[in-house]
Specification:
The protein is α/β, with parallel strands linked by helices and 300 residues long. Helix content is 41%, strand content 23%. The chain contains nine helices and twelve strands. The strands form three sheets. Strands 4-3-5-12-6 form a five-stranded mixed beta sheet, with helices on both faces. A five-stranded mixed beta sheet has the order 9-8-10-7-11, covered by helices on one side. The longest helix is centred in the first third of the chain and has 29 residues. The chain is globular.
Length: 300
């Protein structure tokens, strides 16, 4: 509640009062409080699922109205992406190829949110991740091109961890560790839980949204976390592949209907592919994984 109030620019008591008024209007409890924070009730999930499209439509309306009032025009490309190190290289290539186009970037931890922004005309293209076994709902008409059908998740752990010296780490070796998860990431916990169940382990969870805090916790040995194979190891940490690749994701580029012509979409995807390829080949462990597994990457 405190963080939500801060994000909304209001005091926590004011937000609590407003939430109670909303609950009174809908006739039921929307959130329950626990040790890990507030969670939506079944009614809360229902209200949120209906409210988000309305809010997105209103945001799109206000953005379009402000652009019209300001007389803005010219070529533009509104890019959305899951966070990651590939974003900077992708943007650099887009700016170099489209110097007269206003290219903007919107970063979200949730691929579902990015797809919703596409359908409400707030984004033109979006780079999204889909956890294996938990398919995204691709809205009708949205185009999709797969960059990596099965990207592995590595594990970040302290350089002092007993398993840090191994080239590949098994989930069973990390059964006694706490695992950091981002509660806002689509299906991150569900994918981990499925992998843990298959490995016969049941580790502790630590919900952390701040990347800097998560990195400090890993470096100190307090926790481990799954990460992209293109991630950069922070001081005091190492990145290792997981034995058997129990955690994987599909990477793809989604395109809003009518936003780009086929040649334009091909070029934007090509920029993303080139940025990802360069980043992947700069990581020895991931480069080795790609060669072992017949990766899709051509010669750099």
């Amino acid at each position: 509640m405190r963080k939500a109030a801060l994000q909304l620019g209001m005091t926590q008591p004011s937000l609590t009062t407003q939430l109670r008024r909303i609950e009174g209007a809908v006739g039921g409890l929307l959130f329950t409080r626990g040790q890990t924070g507030s969670r939506p009730t079944p009614l809360g999930h229902s209200v949120l699922s209906r409210a988000r499209p309305i809010i997105a439509e209103m945001t799109a309306l206000m953005t379009a109205a402000r652009d019209a009032a300001a007389g803005t025009g010219g070529a533009r490309l509104r890019v959305g992406s899951i966070g990651g190190r590939v974003v900077a290289g992708w943007l650099r290539r887009l700016h170099a190829r489209l110097p007269d186009t206003d290219v903007t970037i919107h970063i979200e931890v949730s691929a579902g949110t990015l797809l919703q922004l596409l359908t409400t005309n707030q984004l033109d293209v979006a780079f999204v991740h889909e956890a294996e076994g938990f398919p995204l709902h691709i809205p009708p008409g949205v185009g999709q091109r797969v960059l990596m059908a099965r990207e592995p998740r590595f594990v970040a752990l302290s350089a002092a961890h007993p398993a840090a010296g191994r080239p590949v780490v098994g989930l069973a070796e990390l059964a006694d560790d706490a695992w950091i998860v981002d509660p806002a990431a689509d299906h991150e916990w569900s994918a981990l839980q499925r992998a843990f169940t298959a490995a016969g382990t049941d580790p502790r969870l630590m919900h952390v949204r701040d990347a800097a805090t998560a990195a400090d916790l890993v470096a100190s040995g307090e926790a481990v976390r799954a990460c992209q194979p293109t991630a950069e190891a922070t001081p005091g940490t190492v990145l290792r592949p997981l034995y058997g690749d129990p955690l994987t994701a599909e990477l793809s580029l989604a395109t809003r209907p009518g936003a780009l012509s086929l040649p334009e979409a091909d070029a934007v995807f090509g920029d993303l592919e080139d940025a990802y390829r360069s980043l992947a080949y700069a990581h020895p462990a991931y480069r080795s994984w790609l060669h072992r597994n017949g990766g899709m990457l051509p010669a750099a």
